[in-house]
Specification:
This protein is α+β, with helices and mostly antiparallel strands. Helix content is 25%, strand content 33%. Strands 1, 2, 3, 4, 5, 6, 7 and 8 form an eight-stranded antiparallel sheet that branches. The chain is globular.
Length: 150
């Protein structure tokens, strides 16, 4: 069954309005090394409270939906980037639609509240310059994580 993106988002929005969660598969490499293209799924809930280092589903001005991580919050502006990226994108609060509560990797469920997961994310988000250096090294040795920065 093929569903157009606007129709899919309408189904997601209806689920959020009914306090239900949604599980979607991922496409793209922008969240490597935490999430893998076509291998992982995420469980989303309606974005009510958003904190630094949360993974969110948001709507870009061009109409695309993206799943990336919040790096910094200043007022109504959320500074967001993929884990496989280092350039920040500013997103308004009203454009953030959902928040990831679980990762599903190879049929293993990881709660984003898990202390070990939170610790790894904390280290990964500490410094974007260091991340940039680590990514360059990782991409040198791995074809799976190769991703061109936008």
């Amino acid at each position: 069954m093929n569903i157009a993106i606007p129709d899919l988002y309408q189904l997601i929005e209806e689920s959020f309005q009914n306090n239900k969660t949604v599980v979607i598969s991922l496409k793209g490499k922008s969240m490597y090394p935490f999430l893998f293209d076509a291998e992982d799924k995420i469980m989303l809930e309606k974005a009510t409270i958003i904190k630094k280092r949360d993974i969110v589903l948001y709507l870009r001005d061009n109409g695309n939906f993206v799943v990336h991580r919040v790096i910094k919050i200043k007022g109504d502006n959320y500074y967001i980037t993929g884990d496989n990226q280092y350039k920040l994108e500013i997103v308004k609060r009203e454009n953030i639609k959902g928040k990831v509560i679980q990762l599903i990797h190879l049929k293993k469920t990881i709660l984003v509240s898990n202390k070990w997961y939170r610790f790894k994310v904390y280290l990964w988000c500490l410094n974007l310059f260091v991340r940039r250096c680590i990514l360059k090294i990782m991409h040198t040795f791995s074809k799976k994580g190769t991703y061109k920065q936008n």
